[in-house]
Amino acid sequence: MGLLNNTLPDNKLVGAVDTAVGWGRKSSVWPMTFGIACCAIEMMAVFASTFDLDRFGAGIPRATPRQSDLIIVPGTVNAKMAVRVKRLYDQMAEPRYVIAMGACVCGGGPYVKWGYNTVKGVHKIIPVDIFVPGCPPRPEALIDGILKLREKIGREAVFARREKANAEMTARYQV
Amino acid sequence: MFLDYHAVLVFLITGAAMVCTPLIMGFLFRPKNPYPAKTMPYECAEDPVGDAQVRFDMRFYTTALIFIIFEVEIALMFPWALVFKDSPNKALALGAGMVFMSIVFLGLVVDWAKGDLDWVKTFQNKRRVQD
């Protein structure tokens, strides 16, 4: 990682800088233009004017993973697509975040028993930050996921060492 | 006497600092984690195929130029169409619009006559240099 990332002591000054950087990061989460299956339709609705993701600074879908901070995985990931999803995630620049959207991506969904070709949960190939269940989730559900992600990004340790922030995260979400 | 130019020196130093400071800050702050899968060319997550410097046919260039004729025409006709309703002298406005459109259309006619709309060029009425 970077030269100064997670190297400074966790005091008030570094914490304030981290808060400022986190505010900047969470206010400009640019998602990638990426749709796999039917959940993508709901995702497009979220980007469009009725639900207007731009209110949260996340309304500019980028055409390339180099420019995007967030990959929303909307739809069934099958074995053939899993390789591509992994590579797309790999090609994004840090910091990068993943939202698993829909039942299929969260754990197999309707294909969990008989889906011979479905990856049962995208967390098996890339680290997922937020799971948004539903088949497909309502646009409000995805917006809720984005808000949760913003909350998470805002509390991230950027320059401070990670232990305290990780402990807080563990205590809050009981992982 | 060189001290008379100290303002220039300050200007140069400030200019250099304004370029260097963001670069140094970026070097200190940015996450840096290159690995082969990240640095490979992006082709929608497929394996890259072929050369990046693809050659386009020169004939697309003519087509693009002809497209600009219509693009400019449409772009300039929108405001004209918007204010047309409130125009006090509709005949004059219509005439002006028609003059503009005919001028732009003349460009298309010239292109057409010269055979630029044909994908395969014909050289019927032109003497070709036989080589």
Characterization of this structure:
- The complex is a heterodimer of chains A (175) and B (131).
- Chain A has 175 residues and is mainly α.
- In chain A, 40% of the residues lie in helices and 7% in strands.
- Chain A contains 6 helices and 3 strands.
- Chain A has a 3-stranded parallel beta sheet with strand order 1-2-3.
- In chain A, strand 1, helix 3 and strand 2 form a beta-alpha-beta unit.
- Chain A is globular.
- The two termini of chain A are 25 Å apart.
- Chain B folds into 2 domains: 38 residues; 56 residues.
- The N and C termini of chain B lie far apart (70 Å).
- The interface between A and B is medium-sized, with 19 and 15 residues.
Biggest interface reads:
A-B, 19 and 15 residues
Q: What count of helical segments of chain A does DSSP give? A: 6
Task: List unreliable stretches of 5+ residues of chain A.
Answer: none
Q: What share of the residues of chain A lie within helices?
A: 40-55%
Structural class of chain A: mainly alpha
CATH architecture of chain A: 3-Layer(aba) Sandwich
How many β strands of chain A by DSSP? 3
Radius of gyration of chain A: 17 Å
What percentage of amino acids of chain A are in beta strands?
5-15%
Helix coverage percent of chain B: 55-70%
- Tell me the series of helices and strands of chain B, N- to C-terminal: HHHH
What topology, given as strand order, has the largest sheet of chain A?
Answer: 1-2-3
Question: Strand portion of chain B, in percent?
Answer: under 5%
What number of domains of chain B? 2
Summarize the structure.
The complex is a heterodimer of chains A (175) and B (131). Chain A is built from six helices and three strands, in the order H-H-E-H-E-H-E-H-H.
Question: What's the arrangement of secondary structure elements?
Answer:
The complex is a heterodimer of chains A (175) and B (131).
Chain A: H1 12-26, H2 39-47, E1 70-74, H3 79-91, E2 97-101, H4 103-107, E3 130-132, H5 139-154, H6 162-173
Helix pairs in contact in A: 1-5, 2-5
Chain B: H1 6-29, H2 36-39, H3 59-84, H4 90-114
